[in-house]
Amino acid sequence: MNLPARGPAGSPTMSSIEARAVEDASTLDVTARRRPSLITLLCRQKILIVPLCILAAFVVVGLSAPYLATLSPTETALGMKLLPPAWLADGVSDRPLGTDQLGRDIASRIIYGSRLSLMIALAGIVLSGAVGTALGLLAGYYGAWVDALIMRLADMTLAIHIYILAIVLAVVWGPGLRNVLLVTVFLLWSRYARQARAEVLSLKEREFVVAARALGVSAPRIMTRHLLPNILASLIVLSTLQVGFVIVLEATLSFLGAGIPPPNPSWGVMVADGRALIASAWWVSTFPGLAILLVVLSVNLVGDAIRDLLDPRLRRL
């Protein structure tokens, strides 16, 4: 039986509907083929060139510290204490950024401190992010008493003051990297847990999660394969915002005697050591403070751009 060439008055024919469908499909196919890749989108972010170069430079400096630093970061020379930078009066060329109150070369300490500070920030954020995200996924997906228990634990972490915790750790274990990482995880995991929980609560009733449960997919697989990729973008952005917090936290713990023990160089310790000399020897804390500023600002810009690339709602073709 042949279809009529035209349907009711004013309605298109079946052949025109099929032709339009084919045309739409071809248009979608061309659009899909023309969709730029993530690398192309990243290259279009011109603002990322400078922060990426800054971060890469600090990483290279930290890895090459023994070859770039001309002087020892811990060697003291009291006869050369509080020398100004080389371009100022009384400055010397082999101490380009000056010296601190013990005569240690600030440039060498910043170079070696980049390795220590970036390692602490990376390790602390990775550990706290892993713990907080896992607990947030559990709280958001299962709800009920699991959610209540994890969220009450998160509230308890906010009730314990950082200084009390630092003093306890200093008395029990003494200063060290372990204290910094423990305090970082203790203070930051609740932020990741709350962020992950909030997004999982809005995603677990979506069609793809309901369909996965109907097909018998296990809860761990749903959380790791379906929910985690959808909340990863916001967690990455949250991580970039914590870099400065971890560096400042390390400085606070070191000042209280529970952080990195002297004479190990770290940017936070250098800023804390020079805060009392800011009027007479501004370079002691200014240069490590500028290093912290550059790293934190660069990480924030890169994290914001990564958020735009990972979130399909924010992608611009």
Structure described in brief:
With 317 residues, the chain is mainly alpha-helical. 69% of the residues lie in helices and 0% in strands.
How would you describe this structure to a colleague?
Helix 5 (106-142) runs antiparallel to helix 6 (144-159) and helix 5 runs antiparallel to helix 10 (219-241). The chain is 69% helix and 0% strand. The protein has helices at residues 14-34, 38-44, 49-63, 65-68, 106-142, 144-159, 162-172, 177-203, 207-214, 219-241, 243-256, 267-274, 283-310. It is mostly helical.
Question: What are the SSEs and their pairings?
Answer:
Blueprint: H1 14-34, H2 38-44, H3 49-63, H4 65-68, H5 106-142, H6 144-159, H7 162-172, H8 177-203, H9 207-214, H10 219-241, H11 243-256, H12 267-274, H13 283-310
Helix pairs in contact: 3-5, 3-13, 5-6, 5-8, 5-10, 5-11, 6-8, 8-10, 9-10, 10-13, 11-12, 12-13
Notable characteristics:
317 residues; mainly alpha; 69% helix; 0% strand
Shape: elongated
Overall average residue pLDDT: 79
DSSP summary, beta strand count: 0
The class by helix and strand makeup works out as mainly alpha
**What low-confidence regions span 5 or more consecutive residues with pLDDT below 50?**
1-34
Radius of gyration: 28 Å
Query: What is the N-to-C order of secondary-structure elements (H for helix, E for strand)?
Result: HHHHHHHHHHHHH
Contiguous helical run count: 13
State the helicity in percent bands: 55-70%
What share of residues are in beta strands?
under 5%
> End-to-end distance, in Å?
46 Å
Main pleated sheet? none
